[in-house]
Protein backbone atom coordinates (compact mmCIF):
# COMPACT_ATOMS: atom_id res chain seq x y z
CA UNK A 1 0.00 0.00 0.00
CA UNK A 2 1.37 3.41 -0.93
CA UNK A 3 2.40 6.08 1.56
CA UNK A 4 -0.48 8.26 0.34
CA UNK A 5 -3.09 5.60 1.01
CA UNK A 6 -1.70 4.91 4.49
CA UNK A 7 -2.15 8.62 5.17
CA UNK A 8 -5.74 8.69 3.83
CA UNK A 9 -6.73 5.62 5.85
CA UNK A 10 -5.27 7.13 8.99
CA UNK A 11 -7.29 10.30 8.39
CA UNK A 12 -10.46 8.23 7.99
CA UNK A 13 -9.77 6.30 11.20
CA UNK A 14 -9.18 9.52 13.10
CA UNK A 15 -12.45 10.99 11.85
CA UNK A 16 -14.37 7.92 12.98
CA UNK A 17 -12.98 8.03 16.53
CA UNK A 18 -13.53 11.43 18.04
CA UNK A 19 -16.23 13.29 16.18
CA UNK A 20 -19.11 11.44 17.82
CA UNK A 21 -17.78 11.68 21.38
CA UNK A 22 -15.64 14.79 21.73
CA UNK A 23 -13.72 14.96 25.02
CA UNK A 24 -12.42 18.08 26.76
CA UNK A 25 -8.67 18.57 26.58
CA UNK A 26 -7.36 17.94 30.11
CA UNK A 27 -3.71 17.38 29.22
CA UNK A 28 -1.14 19.78 30.60
CA UNK A 29 0.59 22.29 28.31
CA UNK A 30 2.92 25.10 29.40
CA UNK A 31 1.71 28.65 28.82
CA UNK A 32 5.02 30.46 29.19
CA UNK A 33 8.48 29.16 30.08
CA UNK A 34 8.23 30.99 33.40
CA UNK A 35 5.07 29.12 34.40
CA UNK A 36 6.02 25.66 33.16
CA UNK A 37 4.85 23.23 35.85
CA UNK A 38 7.15 20.65 37.38
CA UNK A 39 6.71 17.21 38.88
CA UNK A 40 9.14 15.55 41.24
CA UNK A 41 11.02 12.37 40.43
CA UNK A 42 10.13 11.12 43.92
CA UNK A 43 6.41 11.35 43.19
CA UNK A 44 6.96 9.23 40.08
CA UNK A 45 8.79 6.57 42.04
CA UNK A 46 12.05 7.12 40.17
CA UNK A 47 15.49 6.31 41.51
CA UNK A 48 16.63 9.81 42.47
CA UNK A 49 20.04 8.56 43.63
CA UNK A 50 20.89 7.73 39.99
CA UNK A 51 20.56 11.37 38.87
CA UNK A 52 24.05 12.27 40.05
CA UNK A 53 25.61 9.62 37.81
CA UNK A 54 23.44 10.74 34.88
CA UNK A 55 24.39 14.40 35.30
CA UNK A 56 28.09 13.62 35.69
CA UNK A 57 27.97 11.58 32.50
CA UNK A 58 26.17 14.35 30.62
CA UNK A 59 28.66 16.99 31.72
CA UNK A 60 31.61 14.76 30.84
CA UNK A 61 30.12 14.20 27.38
CA UNK A 62 30.05 17.91 26.40
CA UNK A 63 26.34 18.42 27.09
CA UNK A 64 24.97 21.96 27.24
CA UNK A 65 21.39 21.23 28.28
CA UNK A 66 19.22 18.29 29.27
CA UNK A 67 15.50 18.09 30.04
CA UNK A 68 13.05 15.37 30.95
CA UNK A 69 9.31 15.98 30.63
CA UNK A 70 6.80 13.58 32.15
CA UNK A 71 3.29 14.01 30.74
CA UNK A 72 4.25 17.57 29.79
CA UNK A 73 5.68 18.65 33.15
CA UNK A 74 9.37 19.18 33.84
CA UNK A 75 11.06 16.52 35.96
CA UNK A 76 14.64 17.54 35.22
CA UNK A 77 16.13 20.70 33.68
CA UNK A 78 19.92 20.93 33.76
CA UNK A 79 22.46 23.21 32.11
CA UNK A 80 26.18 22.58 31.79
CA UNK A 81 29.37 24.14 30.50
CA UNK A 82 28.24 27.77 30.61
CA UNK A 83 24.87 27.17 28.93
CA UNK A 84 21.65 28.60 30.42
CA UNK A 85 17.88 28.49 29.97
CA UNK A 86 18.13 31.55 27.72
CA UNK A 87 21.02 30.28 25.57
CA UNK A 88 20.32 29.39 21.95
CA UNK A 89 21.80 26.30 20.30
CA UNK A 90 21.45 24.72 16.88
CA UNK A 91 19.24 21.70 16.29
CA UNK A 92 21.25 20.38 13.31
CA UNK A 93 19.38 17.51 11.63
CA UNK A 94 17.00 17.15 14.57
CA UNK A 95 15.42 20.22 12.98
CA UNK A 96 14.50 18.21 9.89
CA UNK A 97 11.41 17.23 11.85
CA UNK A 98 10.30 20.88 11.89
CA UNK A 99 10.26 20.76 8.09
CA UNK A 100 8.29 17.52 8.29
CA UNK A 101 5.69 19.14 10.55
CA UNK A 102 5.22 22.16 8.28
CA UNK A 103 4.85 19.88 5.25
CA UNK A 104 2.01 18.13 7.07
CA UNK A 105 0.41 21.45 7.99
CA UNK A 106 0.58 22.66 4.38
CA UNK A 107 -0.95 19.38 3.18
CA UNK A 108 -3.83 19.76 5.65
CA UNK A 109 -4.37 23.30 4.38
CA UNK A 110 -4.75 21.91 0.86
CA UNK A 111 -1.63 23.69 -0.38
CA UNK A 112 0.22 20.52 -1.41
CA UNK A 113 -0.20 16.80 -1.91
CA UNK A 114 2.46 14.50 -0.42
CA UNK A 115 1.90 12.09 -3.31
CA UNK A 116 2.52 14.72 -6.00
CA UNK A 117 5.79 15.15 -7.89
CA UNK A 118 8.09 17.81 -6.46
CA UNK A 119 8.28 19.34 -9.93
CA UNK A 120 4.55 20.08 -9.67
CA UNK A 121 5.54 22.86 -7.26
CA UNK A 122 9.12 23.74 -8.19
CA UNK A 123 8.87 23.32 -11.95
CA UNK A 124 10.97 21.12 -14.23
CA UNK A 125 14.73 21.26 -13.93
CA UNK A 126 15.11 21.50 -10.15
CA UNK A 127 17.51 18.53 -10.51
CA UNK A 128 19.91 17.42 -13.25
CA UNK A 129 17.86 14.31 -13.93
CA UNK A 130 16.14 13.49 -17.22
CA UNK A 131 12.57 14.75 -17.10
CA UNK A 132 11.05 11.28 -16.78
CA UNK A 133 13.28 10.45 -13.78
CA UNK A 134 12.78 13.81 -12.07
CA UNK A 135 9.02 13.35 -12.35
CA UNK A 136 9.30 10.20 -10.23
CA UNK A 137 10.47 12.16 -7.18
CA UNK A 138 7.44 12.90 -5.03
CA UNK A 139 7.07 15.03 -1.93
CA UNK A 140 6.86 11.76 0.00
CA UNK A 141 10.28 10.73 -1.30
CA UNK A 142 11.83 13.84 0.24
CA UNK A 143 10.07 13.10 3.53
CA UNK A 144 11.41 9.54 3.60
CA UNK A 145 14.94 10.04 2.11
CA UNK A 146 14.09 7.91 -0.92
CA UNK A 147 14.70 10.45 -3.71
CA UNK A 148 17.22 8.22 -5.48
CA UNK A 149 19.63 11.16 -5.78
CA UNK A 150 23.39 10.86 -5.32
CA UNK A 151 24.16 11.47 -1.63
CA UNK A 152 27.96 11.57 -2.16
CA UNK A 153 28.11 15.04 -3.76
CA UNK A 154 27.92 17.23 -0.65
CA UNK A 155 25.19 19.36 0.86
CA UNK A 156 24.40 21.73 -2.00
CA UNK A 157 20.93 21.33 -3.50
CA UNK A 158 21.68 23.31 -6.66
CA UNK A 159 20.45 21.42 -9.75
CA UNK A 160 23.98 20.49 -10.85
CA UNK A 161 24.52 18.76 -7.51
CA UNK A 162 21.33 16.68 -7.68
CA UNK A 163 22.35 13.71 -9.80
CA UNK A 164 20.66 10.39 -10.55
CA UNK A 165 21.65 7.16 -8.82
CA UNK A 166 18.40 5.19 -8.75
CA UNK A 167 14.70 5.62 -9.39
CA UNK A 168 12.89 7.41 -6.58
CA UNK A 169 11.54 4.96 -4.02
CA UNK A 170 14.10 2.24 -4.71
CA UNK A 171 17.04 3.49 -2.60
CA UNK A 172 17.29 5.02 0.90
CA UNK A 173 20.04 7.58 1.43
CA UNK A 174 20.34 10.42 3.92
CA UNK A 175 20.44 13.50 1.69
CA UNK A 176 20.18 17.25 2.19
CA UNK A 177 17.68 17.42 -0.69
CA UNK A 178 14.96 17.28 1.99
CA UNK A 179 15.47 21.07 2.29
CA UNK A 180 13.66 21.47 -1.03
CA UNK A 181 10.49 20.81 0.98
CA UNK A 182 10.98 24.26 2.46
CA UNK A 183 11.02 25.67 -1.07
CA UNK A 184 7.84 23.75 -1.87
CA UNK A 185 6.04 25.08 1.21
CA UNK A 186 7.26 28.61 0.52
CA UNK A 187 6.10 28.39 -3.10
CA UNK A 188 2.60 27.07 -2.38
CA UNK A 189 2.04 29.42 0.57
CA UNK A 190 3.47 32.45 -1.26
CA UNK A 191 5.51 33.31 1.85
CA UNK A 192 9.10 32.94 2.91
CA UNK A 193 9.85 29.65 4.64
CA UNK A 194 10.64 31.42 7.93
CA UNK A 195 7.40 33.41 7.84
CA UNK A 196 5.31 30.31 7.15
CA UNK A 197 7.07 28.35 9.89
CA UNK A 198 6.70 31.14 12.44
CA UNK A 199 3.01 31.73 11.71
CA UNK A 200 1.93 28.11 11.48
CA UNK A 201 4.12 26.38 14.05
CA UNK A 202 6.61 28.39 16.13
CA UNK A 203 4.32 31.13 17.40
CA UNK A 204 1.36 28.81 17.99
CA UNK A 205 3.21 26.71 20.57
CA UNK A 206 5.29 29.48 22.15
CA UNK A 207 8.68 28.54 20.76
CA UNK A 208 11.50 31.02 20.20
CA UNK A 209 14.35 30.72 17.72
CA UNK A 210 15.21 31.34 14.10
CA UNK A 211 16.48 29.72 10.90
CA UNK A 212 19.96 30.44 9.63
CA UNK A 213 22.11 29.28 6.73
CA UNK A 214 25.29 27.41 7.56
CA UNK A 215 26.50 27.25 3.96
CA UNK A 216 25.85 24.95 0.99
CA UNK A 217 22.09 25.52 1.23
CA UNK A 218 21.84 24.10 4.75
CA UNK A 219 18.90 25.56 6.66
CA UNK A 220 19.44 25.11 10.40
CA UNK A 221 17.20 26.02 13.32
CA UNK A 222 18.43 27.51 16.59
CA UNK A 223 16.47 27.95 19.83
CA UNK A 224 16.64 27.57 23.57
CA UNK A 225 16.15 24.17 25.15
CA UNK A 226 12.56 24.69 26.24
CA UNK A 227 11.56 25.51 22.67
CA UNK A 228 12.90 22.15 21.55
CA UNK A 229 10.99 20.57 24.43
CA UNK A 230 7.78 22.36 23.34
CA UNK A 231 8.07 20.84 19.89
CA UNK A 232 8.78 17.42 21.38
CA UNK A 233 5.68 17.76 23.54
CA UNK A 234 3.60 18.80 20.53
CA UNK A 235 4.67 15.68 18.65
CA UNK A 236 4.14 13.46 21.67
CA UNK A 237 0.54 14.76 21.70
CA UNK A 238 0.11 13.90 18.02
CA UNK A 239 0.29 17.49 16.85
CA UNK A 240 -2.18 18.99 19.33
CA UNK A 241 -1.51 22.05 21.51
CA UNK A 242 -4.19 22.81 24.10
CA UNK A 243 -7.40 22.44 22.05
CA UNK A 244 -5.85 23.27 18.66
CA UNK A 245 -4.65 20.65 16.19
CA UNK A 246 -1.44 22.24 14.85
CA UNK A 247 -0.07 19.28 12.86
CA UNK A 248 -2.64 16.77 11.55
CA UNK A 249 -2.87 13.78 13.88
CA UNK A 250 -2.83 11.25 11.04
CA UNK A 251 0.24 12.90 9.58
CA UNK A 252 2.01 12.74 12.96
CA UNK A 253 1.19 9.03 13.18
CA UNK A 254 2.57 8.41 9.69
CA UNK A 255 5.67 10.52 10.37
CA UNK A 256 6.65 8.58 13.48
CA UNK A 257 6.24 5.06 12.06
CA UNK A 258 8.22 3.11 9.47
CA UNK A 259 7.55 4.90 6.18
CA UNK A 260 9.14 2.48 3.70
CA UNK A 261 10.84 -0.94 3.69
CA UNK A 262 14.32 0.27 2.71
CA UNK A 263 15.11 1.62 6.20
CA UNK A 264 12.58 0.40 8.72
CA UNK A 265 14.01 2.73 11.36
CA UNK A 266 12.97 5.85 9.44
CA UNK A 267 9.65 7.67 9.24
CA UNK A 268 9.23 11.17 7.85
CA UNK A 269 12.63 12.39 9.08
CA UNK A 270 11.92 10.86 12.49
CA UNK A 271 14.04 7.89 13.59
CA UNK A 272 12.10 4.84 14.80
CA UNK A 273 13.36 2.55 17.56
CA UNK A 274 12.40 -1.07 18.11
CA UNK A 275 12.57 -2.25 14.50
CA UNK A 276 14.48 -5.38 13.48
CA UNK A 277 16.87 -3.58 11.09
CA UNK A 278 18.15 -0.07 10.41
CA UNK A 279 20.40 1.95 8.11
CA UNK A 280 22.62 4.92 8.99
CA UNK A 281 23.56 8.14 7.17
CA UNK A 282 26.32 7.89 4.56
CA UNK A 283 26.20 4.07 4.52
CA UNK A 284 24.51 1.67 2.15
CA UNK A 285 24.48 -1.15 4.66
CA UNK A 286 21.68 -2.70 6.65
CA UNK A 287 22.33 -3.41 10.34
CA UNK A 288 20.39 -5.99 12.31
CA UNK A 289 18.75 -5.11 15.59
CA UNK A 290 17.12 -2.08 17.16
CA UNK A 291 18.43 1.42 16.51
CA UNK A 292 19.11 2.16 20.22
CA UNK A 293 18.91 -1.20 22.05
CA UNK A 294 18.82 0.26 25.58
CA UNK A 295 15.95 2.64 24.77
CA UNK A 296 12.26 1.66 24.92
CA UNK A 297 11.05 -0.12 21.81
CA UNK A 298 8.25 2.39 21.19
CA UNK A 299 10.57 5.42 21.22
CA UNK A 300 10.91 7.69 18.19
CA UNK A 301 13.45 10.46 18.01
CA UNK A 302 14.87 13.44 16.17
CA UNK A 303 18.64 13.13 15.88
CA UNK A 304 21.11 15.81 14.80
CA UNK A 305 24.81 16.18 14.17
CA UNK A 306 26.95 16.34 17.30
CA UNK A 307 24.29 14.69 19.43
CA UNK A 308 21.28 17.00 19.35
CA UNK A 309 18.40 14.81 20.56
CA UNK A 310 14.63 14.73 20.98
CA UNK A 311 13.55 11.38 22.41
CA UNK A 312 9.81 10.66 22.68
CA UNK A 313 8.55 7.57 24.54
CA UNK A 314 4.73 7.30 24.39
CA UNK A 315 4.50 4.32 26.79
CA UNK A 316 6.31 6.26 29.52
CA UNK A 317 4.85 9.73 28.69
CA UNK A 318 8.41 11.01 28.29
CA UNK A 319 9.99 13.72 26.17
CA UNK A 320 13.75 14.02 26.65
CA UNK A 321 16.00 16.74 25.20
CA UNK A 322 19.78 16.86 24.88
CA UNK A 323 21.69 19.76 23.31
CA UNK A 324 25.43 20.27 23.17
CA UNK A 325 28.68 19.52 21.44
CA UNK A 326 29.48 16.04 20.20
CA UNK A 327 29.76 13.56 23.07
CA UNK A 328 32.80 11.97 21.48
CA UNK A 329 33.97 12.43 17.89
CA UNK A 330 31.96 14.31 15.27
CA UNK A 331 28.94 12.28 14.19
CA UNK A 332 26.08 12.74 11.76
CA UNK A 333 23.05 11.61 13.76
CA UNK A 334 23.30 8.39 15.76
CA UNK A 335 26.29 7.40 17.89
CA UNK A 336 27.25 5.02 20.71
CA UNK A 337 26.40 7.90 23.03
CA UNK A 338 22.67 7.26 22.51
CA UNK A 339 22.81 3.77 23.94
CA UNK A 340 25.14 4.77 26.79
CA UNK A 341 22.88 7.71 27.67
CA UNK A 342 19.81 5.50 27.75
CA UNK A 343 21.51 3.13 30.16
CA UNK A 344 21.94 6.11 32.52
CA UNK A 345 18.34 7.27 31.96
CA UNK A 346 17.02 3.76 32.61
CA UNK A 347 18.76 3.72 35.98
CA UNK A 348 16.73 6.81 36.89
CA UNK A 349 13.30 5.94 35.51
CA UNK A 350 13.59 2.24 36.49
UniProtKB/TrEMBL annotation:
Gene3D superfamilies: DD-peptidase/beta-lactamase superfamily. It comes from the Bacteria. InterPro entries: Beta-lactam-related, Beta-lactam/transpept-like, Diverse_Enzym_Activities. It holds the Pfam family Beta-lactamase. Residues 65-326 form the Beta-lactamase-related domain. Transmembrane segments: none annotated. GO terms for molecular function: hydrolase activity. Keywords: Hydrolase. This is Serine hydrolase.
Amino acid sequence: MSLFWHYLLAVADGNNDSDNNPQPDTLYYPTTDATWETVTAESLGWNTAAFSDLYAFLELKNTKSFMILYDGRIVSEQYFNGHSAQSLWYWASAGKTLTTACTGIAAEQGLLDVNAAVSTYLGAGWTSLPANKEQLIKVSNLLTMTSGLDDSLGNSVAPENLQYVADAGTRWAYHNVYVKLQDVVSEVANKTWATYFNENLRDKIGMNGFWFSSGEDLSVYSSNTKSMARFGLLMSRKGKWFDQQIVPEAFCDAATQTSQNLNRAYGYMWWINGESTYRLPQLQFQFNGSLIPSAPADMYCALGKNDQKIYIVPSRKLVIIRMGDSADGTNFALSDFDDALWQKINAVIQ
